[in-house]
UniProtKB/TrEMBL annotation:
The keyword Hydrolase appears for this protein: yes
GO MF terms held by the record: hydrolase activity
Source species, domain of life: Bacteria
InterPro entries on file: Aliph_Amidase/BUP, C-N_Hydrolase, C-N_Hydrolase_sf
Classification of source organism: Bacteria, Pseudomonadati, Pseudomonadota, Gammaproteobacteria, Oceanospirillales
Record carries keyword Hydrolase: yes
Coiled coil location: none
Residue span(s) of domain CN hydrolase: 1-267
A family per Pfam: CN_hydrolase
Listed PROSITE patterns: CN_HYDROLASE
Record keywords, A-Z: Hydrolase
Protein name: Carbon-nitrogen hydrolase
Length: 297
């Protein structure tokens, strides 16, 4: 299966940002991609650097203008497209939501970000409510079935949690996908920047290893200022990648360029890998009860 990851900058102007997304998707589809992943909040700047109630005006319902635009694009190109929305679910209730469009089927599913950070420059708890954990209603850590396979979609801060990847794998995900918005504080040292980015790449590759699954990661590029003037802004580090079920890097983007990574995956390798590294077989599920506790005092 040929898959693609789109890496792009973004701006406060939705039309400009969405045009960049569309150009990347079209370029990927022209190279044969049947599954295309866009980055987190690709239609806007990363507005969570500061808290401003007026920014809730950026939010849209799932079937709002951005969603309809992505749906039409996926139908025209006959691809599975994974986009990202600042979702207005109800007055006062907003989510950071990945949405899946499947060719002529239109919008077939969504995933609402489950882990919500709240750190300097990443004040997401002000804007986003975590997704519901309800497998029966296909919410939470539940894969989405598409014409190209069962997608385990997680969003940005979710990528640091092995539990999230494992639960998607246990529910039959055939790929893990991580739309992302992450970068450096310009005041950090070069050594610290290297440690952060290496850790980010390593842990997601490790999710592929631990679950025997390919992993697709899309991150943004470019410097986005803190318009409140309090912080120094974020220098988004790109580094989007695709890796195989043993964590092997199949394609890796640089830290600054707008680009598309197009990779043909051998989907049979996942099962072959699990046969020789049978982590699911040897899990001691009888001994993991304390994982549901916050901490073992």
């Amino acid at each position: 299966m040929t898959v693609a990851v789109v890496q792009q900058p973004a701006w406060p102007d939705k039309a400009k940002s969405l045009a960049a997304s569309e150009a990347g998707v079209r370029a990927a589809a022209a190279q044969g991609a049947k599954l295309v992943l866009l980055q987190e909040l690709h239609a806007t700047h990363y507005f969570c650097q500061y808290e401003d109630p007026a920014l809730f005006d950026l939010a849209e319902p799932l079937d709002g203008p951005t969603g309809r635009h992505l749906e039409v694009l996926a139908r025209e190109l006959d691809i599975v497209l994974v986009g990202s929305l600042f979702e207005r679910r109800a007055p006062g209730l907003y989510h950071n939501t990945a949405v899946v469009y499947d060719g002529d089927q239109g919008r077939i599913g969504h995933y609402r970000k489950m882990h919500i950070p709240d750190d300097p420059g990443f004040y997401e708890k002000f804007y986003f409510t975590p997704g519901d954990a309800d497998a029966e209603r296909k919410e939470g850590f539940t894969p989405i079935d598409t014409s190209v396979g069962r997608l385990g979609i997680l969003v940005c801060w979710d990528q640091w949690y092995p539990e999230a990847a494992r639960l998607m794998a246990l529910a039959g995900a055939e790929l893990l996908l991580y739309p992302t918005a992450i970068g450096w504080d310009p005041s950090d040292s070069d050594a610290e920047k290297t440690r952060q980015k290496d850790a980010w790449t390593l842990i997601q590759r490790a999710h592929g290893v631990a679950n025997g699954l390919p992993v697709l990661v899309a991150n943004r590029v470019g410097f986005e200022p803190d318009h409140s003037g309090v912080g120094g802004g974020i220098d988004f580090w790109g580094g989007s990648f695709v890796c195989g079920p043993q964590g092997e890097l199949l394609a890796h983007a640089d830290a600054a360029s707008e680009q598309q990574l197009v990779v043909t995956l051998d989907m049979a390798r996942g099962e072959h890998t699990r046969r020789i590294w049978p982590y699911l077989r040897d899990r001691r599920i009888d001994a993991y009860g304390d994982l549901t506790r916050r901490y073992r005092d």
